[in-house]
């Protein structure tokens, strides 16, 4: 049975996850003066995303409520930074850099081949929900390009065969 959390949203947030969120947020808020806790929106959303999987409207409302600010403030921050997912994503997030160095060394080709293989657009999720594919800007690994992030882990000096190997090893 899903227990409704008291965030006043139409969406149910499981109580155990809300408690987890609150514990993590309490640690972060120790670093903020009590009257400035609204400034902790980025870490709050980050925790919310980790705990609940994505920044749903209910998660944004939870962050806003806990920080004593508005849902529109949470929305502004969540939609400004690309690391926040405002839609559900697949089990694994695959981010391919197609910026200049990576593009010249085959990053764009890898991205296009994965898109075609999975039948998704940029930001799309495979039909089985296993992968979400995103094109990203420079990952800071230009000297060892092309590079990709998979679930925030960096892989460098790639070609399609290596990418297939890495992705094939994911559960
Ligand atoms: S251009 Fe891809 S890591 Fe810099």
Can you offer a commentary on this structure?
With 171 residues, the chain is an alpha+beta fold. The chain contains seven helices and four strands. It has helices spanning 15-29, 41-52, 57-67, 71-80, 100-104, 107-118, 160-168; strands at 92-97, 131-136, 148-150, 153-155. The protein is elongated. The two termini are 27 Å apart. The relative contact order is 0.11. The chain binds FE2/S2 (inorganic) cluster. FE2/S2 (inorganic) cluster binds at residues 97, 99-102, 138-142, 145, 147.
Q: In a nutshell, what does this entry contain?
A:
With 171 residues, the protein is an alpha+beta fold. The protein has helices at 15-29, 41-52, 57-67, 71-80, 100-104, 107-118, 160-168; strands spanning 92-97, 131-136, 148-150, 153-155.
Please outline the helices and strands.
Layout: H1 15-29, H2 41-52, H3 57-67, H4 71-80, E1 92-97, H5 100-104, H6 107-118, E2 131-136, E3 148-150, E4 153-155, H7 160-168
Parallel strand pairs: 1-2
Antiparallel strand pairs: 1-3, 3-4
This protein binds FE2/S2 (inorganic) cluster.
FE2/S2 (inorganic) cluster binds at residues 97, 99-102, 138-142, 145, 147.
């Amino acid at each position: 049975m899903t227990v409704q959390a008291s965030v006043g949203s139409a969406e149910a947030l499981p109580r155990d996850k809300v408690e987890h969120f609150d514990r993590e947020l309490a640690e972060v808020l120790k670093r903020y003066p009590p009257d400035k806790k609204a400034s902790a929106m980025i870490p709050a959303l980050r925790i919310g995303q980790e705990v609940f999987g994505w920044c749903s409207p209910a998660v944004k409302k939870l962050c806003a409520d806990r920080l004593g600010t508005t849902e529109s403030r949470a929305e502004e921050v969540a939609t400004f930074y690309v690391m926040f997912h405002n839609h559900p994503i697949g089990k694994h997030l695959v981010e391919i850099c197609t910026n200049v160095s990576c593009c010249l060394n085959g990053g764009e080709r890898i991205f296009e081949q994965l898109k075609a293989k999975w039948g998704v657009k940029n930001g799309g999720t495979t039909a089985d929900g296993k992968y979400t594919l995103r094109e990203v800007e420079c990952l800071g690994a230009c000297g060892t390009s092309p590079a990709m992030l998979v679930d925030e882990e960096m892989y460098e000096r790639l070609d399609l065969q290596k990418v297939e190997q890495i992705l094939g090893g994911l559960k």
